[in-house]
Each structure stands twice: as C-alpha cells, then as structure tokens.
Amino acid sequence: MKNIPRKKSGRARRSGSAPHTLSIDIGGTHIKASVLDPSGNELAKHVEVSTPHPAPPDVVLVLLDRLVRSLPAYDRISVGFPGVVKRGRIITAPNLGSADWHEFPLATELERRWQRKARVLNDAEVQGLGVIQGQGLECVLTLGTGFGSALYRDGELMPHLELGQHPIWKSKTYDQYLGAAALKAKGIDKWTRRVRRMLKIVRTLMNYDHLYLGGGNATRINFELPSDVSIVSNEAGITGGVKLWESALDRFF
C-alpha cells in the first residue's frame, strides 16, 4: 500500500451530542457524500464528483478530501463501496479499473487520515439498509455502472452475494449483461428485455418477499413491475450509511 499522507477533512463536533455521520457513496460513475443526523436525515444537500477511470486508492482519497471539505461537522464515517468488502478491507473493485484496491484497508486509512472511526460496506448493502422494511426475505439489486446485490432476512444482513460477477446468460456476468456499458451498446429496448429476463431468474433463485431496484439506471425501466418489486431512490446509498453503526452490524466490522 502506498504511504498516503493524512489530510484534515471536516470539523470535529463537540462531545456529548448525538453522533452525526459522514456518509460516502463510492460508485463507478459518481462519488457522493453528505452528513446525516442520528435519524438518517441529510444535514446538507449531498455533494458529488465524477469518478475518474482508473480510480486507484490514492486518487479516490484525494477526491474525498476535496469533496467533504464543504460539509458540516461529523463524528464518524460510513462508506458504501462497489465491490466485496470484509471488515473494512477491500477485496474486489470490479468497476473502478484498478487492481490496487485488492486488500486495501479503506476503513483504517480513513480513520488515520481523518481521525474519526470509519465503517465500510458494499454499496448495494448500504443502499438496502436505507430502504428495507425488515420483514421476510428482502433483496436489493442496483443497476448502475455495474450490477450490485444485497440480501436481508427479517432485517438482518446476509453474507455478501456478489451476483454481479456471476454468469447470467451464456458467458456474460450480470455486470456485463446489465451494466451501463451494455445499456449504451445495446440500447434501451434490448437492455429492458434483459432486465425482464434477469428479474425472472432472480425470483426463481431467491424466492424473495420483496425486491428493491436501485442504481442510476433503475429509472430507465419502462415496463410495469410486479407488486413485490419496487424502484427506490438512489439517495438511499447515502442515507443508509447511518445504519452501519447499529449494533446488529457490529459483527461485520
């Protein structure tokens, strides 16, 4: 890992008050951030920058320094990351175009850099925490630069299922079949047919009670969805960050 210099970012708050959370959503297209009150409400409109490509850790961290400088004071940090994350360490980053992320200790680096406690989880899982109802088997899928997935049982996060890297049709993975590159290459009509096919496959695979569709391209879906499938706001990728600090998730960190 490169020796990345520490930068002061944001202002610490006075102790004794309910914690405010800096919530960051790192995506393949945009990086967004806001500060949340204890109920998950944004204290300031989120700020964002375009994600560079490639996006190695040192480049992303410099962007984050600049991004959060204008935000209100905060006490702790939550991050949604587009890949497999284990105990704050990045395992995969398929849509950031950089092998440098493998085994990168993102949570530890942010704590060192900004002098606040940090928790990092897969971005689809963070988004799901912001929208699920906590009843039955709930699945979250994100249609963005790539394809994200998360699964919950009665509100409890299940071990991460990286569906985006699994084959769905012939030799193509969900990422390749339904990601932003496929939408651009194939056009909306063919991409929509692929979404229909995917939904049938996932229903058979998961037998979910409710499915939530997020990500920037979910709003491009132009057919009527079943009553147990909902399109949710992409803002949940930020607002779900406050849930990372609930005791039920301590085992992931």
Write the layout of secondary structure elements.
Blueprint: E1 21-26, E2 30-36, E3 47-50, H1 57-68, E4 76-81, E5 85-86, E6 89-90, H2 106-114, E7 117-122, H3 123-129, E8 137-143, E9 147-153, E10 156-157, E11 167-169, E12 172-173, H4 174-178, H5 180-206, E13 210-214, E14 229-231, H6 236-239
Explain what you see:
- The chain is 25% helix and 25% strand.
- By secondary structure, the protein is an alpha/beta fold.
- The strands form 4 sheets. The chain has a 5-stranded mixed β-sheet. Strands 10-9-8-13-14 form a 5-stranded mixed β-sheet. A two-stranded antiparallel sheet has the order 5-6.
- The two termini are 21 Å apart.
- The model has no long low-confidence stretch (mean pLDDT 93).
What are the salient characteristics of this protein?
Nucleotidyltransferase, domain 5, 6 helices, 5-stranded mixed beta sheet, 253 residues, alpha/beta, 25% helix
| CATH top level class name of the largest domain | Alpha Beta
Strand order of the largest sheet: 3-2-1-4-7
**Overall residue-averaged pLDDT value:** 93
Total strands: 14
CATH architecture of the largest domain: 2-Layer Sandwich
